[in-house]
Amino acid sequence: MKLFFYTLKDIGIERLFKRILYKINNFIDELFYNKLKFDLFIDLIFKNKINLRWENKLSRKKNNSLITHKKNKKVFIVFKLLNQKRKFEFPFRWNDKEWPRLWQFHLHYFNWLRNWLEKDIKNQENSIELETIDNLISDWINSNYKSSFDGWHSYTTSIRIRNLLLFYSFHPEIVKEKYLSSIWDQLIWLERHPESYLGGNHWLENLTALIFGSLFFENKKSNKIFLKALKKLEKEIDIQILEDGGHEERSSSYHILIIDRLVEIACLIYIFKNLRIDWLEEKIKKMYFWILKVRSKDKLLPRFNDNMFQSSEDVDDILNFASSIINRNNFCENGIRYELIRKCDFKKNYEIKKDKDSFSNCEINDLKDTGWLIIKSGNFYLTFKYGQSSPKHLPGHGHSDALSFDLFFKNIPLIAETGTSIYENGLRRINERSLRSHNALQLGEIINKKNSKINWIEPVEIWDSFKAGRKSKLKQINFGKYAKNTFWVEASHDAYERINSEHKRKIIFKKIGSSQCCLKIIDSLNIIKLTAWRSWWHLGPEQEKKFLFSTIGYFQKKYNAKYKWEKTYYANSFNELIPRYSLCIEGFLPRGKYEFEVEINFLVKQTPQKYEVSCKDSIFIV
Known about the structure:
The chain has 622 residues and is of the alpha+beta class.
């Protein structure tokens, strides 16, 4: 109950009121939308059509003829979403309570169609014929009546509008009046069901989809939607994009998704309106340089908070996309993004003001608004999180990972937090968000020492899939460089003041050779009464336990601590779990001041397996 109170308190009255209105609106629509035919109150006279100038320049004329399958021929379609495959005989149900909800969301996103289109543009082999795509779109429209099921969630609708319109633009021969009418319905519905109460990436998805969709139609209503959504987008990204260029939800994955959306919008406004939106491109530029600052030379990104590892190739494409709009040049390779930039037909070239290498190769980068410190030294890559985990009102993608760190050699995790493999509510989701899944120290209030009942304090009191109670605040941050290849960072937060204790962590990193480093962790504690403590250390897959043997010996000898090894996993992406070992060292401390000082030496003798997967939604026939 206490967690629920703190959650509501941080959300605030205004957002709660908007959320209630959103739910009421959805409830009414689910009951009456189709029965009362609300369409009559909206201008659906078919004067709305895809802009022909767009059609002519992006449509692909070869292989556009539809192939008619023989009647009664069975077609089995396989969707690979979130690294999970499901096989269906067409036609099939688009909604099933037995599926994980996120999997069902991805089915309705139609990202699988976008990836099909990407292959089609690049003349790569697709196992799905255009006629099958046509049938799938038609079946979705017939099976998902307005305001029903997850297909009409504001978030899924936003993503699907973009994907369908891009597909129709490249394949106008497939477009029917039914399809355009459906897209218009979805656009109008989205305008009436915005997630403004939620904010964050969901609200940006809504706004960019409204702008995106409105540009493809030519009528008074679409122009009104465009102007209104653009004005709201300007206000919202000014709030959500931090001064250092990061996104307020502090997730590399969502940062990448959002910059991709913003560049798409900048391109389309240039294409349809011949306008350059300075405030939009300025935010794109800030977000672009943020990525360069946090990304390692081996193209890794920090894994803090909810993070679905994109492949380095995907991130490269998005960086080239952003650089293209900034520089008025086409740096994209063949594909959808290349065609969007090509269609802009820029007349002038602009040079980027700062050399990207000055950010990419900088040894130490402090993202003070994001709350991350990044150290890049040779082949080593250290990320440290010291700031707030998420906006107060939006903790859904935040983790309880204050003062946690990850260490990589090239693309190989040496010490790395668990990551994100699932969004479904349950023990696995709770564990992945809690401190136990991160490389951090935790204090606990002793309720009953005899039966080991301890109230472990979470810097972020996570609960449910996307909720959190109290969130820790940063108290101090300092960092610097002692000598060549030797860096340090020191920070503290206020979470343990709840039990009248204090914790400060200092990390000293020294690169000794091209494949050797020394990591020193100093945890300073001020304990007021007998308190439980535990320290988590998560090895990367294939890393040997021996790296932490000296750490175990230190705590056993000096603090009579206990330890246990656990078989855990490294979540490379959704549902991609790679086995590894984690160490938990724990004990009790009476009143006093303490300083845990651990030194770990890594010598990488050989380069192990490279962990990178592509989690692209796909579709094929078997």
